[in-house]
Amino acid sequence: MAITDLPSDWSFWILLPDREEGPEVVDASWNVELKEPLFFAQEEFTFISPFQVNAHARWADQSVMVEIDLEATISVPCVRCLELTDIALRTHFMYLYSLRDFVSSGREQEADEHIVLVDSLENRLDITPQVWESLILSLPLHPLCREECKGLCPICGASLNEGDCGCNRQAIDPRLSDLLKMKEDDLEA
Ligand SMILES: [Zn+2]
Ligand SMILES: [Zn+2]
Question: Which residues neighbour 85 within 8 Å (Cβ) at sequence distance 6 or greater?
């Protein structure tokens, strides 16, 4: 069974920094093991080791900024030659948690931050949906074993990375091939 949605046993919470005293930034980190592959955008991504989630929370005016860093190594078939390929992911996401009824203070929004509206900003924050979203957004949509991958021969299916298979891959005009087929049928009749 491949994973297609946020796993029900996932729970990522981060403590909020004390506004008066204590450290300005609170860190949290997790090592997450995904035993099943993750199926997304027609691809199956296998996590070959537990992936690392690091999160940092700090106050930004009346909101809380949480940075989420992900580190993972996945195995996925190359879209051209289908060979399983290991890809290292390192991504960084920023989420701004703001109270639903908080009127924007006119603070300039940074281009790469996402706003999450919450009902309360007390003690701790559930960042589980954002960890899942970060993971999904980290996945490569067009994974290649190498930039210059030559893919598979459309005729015999051999990997062209391993040398030429000898097939004649000159495109045949489909109308011409239909004519040839009709001629063959005639000869057989
Ligand atoms: Zn390839
Ligand atoms: Zn071939």
Answer: 75, 76, 77, 78, 143, 144, 145
Q: What is the CA radius of gyration of the chain?
A: 25
For residue 154, with 0-12 CB atoms within 10 Å meaning exposed, 13-18 middle and 19 or more buried, which class applies? exposed
Find the mean pLDDT for residues 65-86: 95
Task: Tell me the CA–centroid distance for residue 40 and ligand 1, in Å.
Answer: 19
Q: Nearest 5°: phi and psi at 60? A: -135, 95
- Supply the pTM of this predicted model: 0.80
Ligand nearest to the CA of 164: 2
Least Cα distance to 135 among 70, 179, 47 occurs for 70
- pLDDT tens column, 128-160: 999 999 999 999 989 999 999 999 999 999 999
> How many whole angstroms from 160 Cα to the centroid of ligand 2?
8
Largest CA distance in the chain: 93
> Around ion ligand 2, which residues have CB less than 5 A away?
153, 155-156, 158, 165, 167
How much distance in Å is there from the Cα of 54 to the middle of ligand 2? 47
Position of tokens 């949906």?
129
Which residues 6+ apart lie within 8 Å of 176 measured at CB?
none
Residue 69's CB: how many other CB atoms inside 10 A? 15
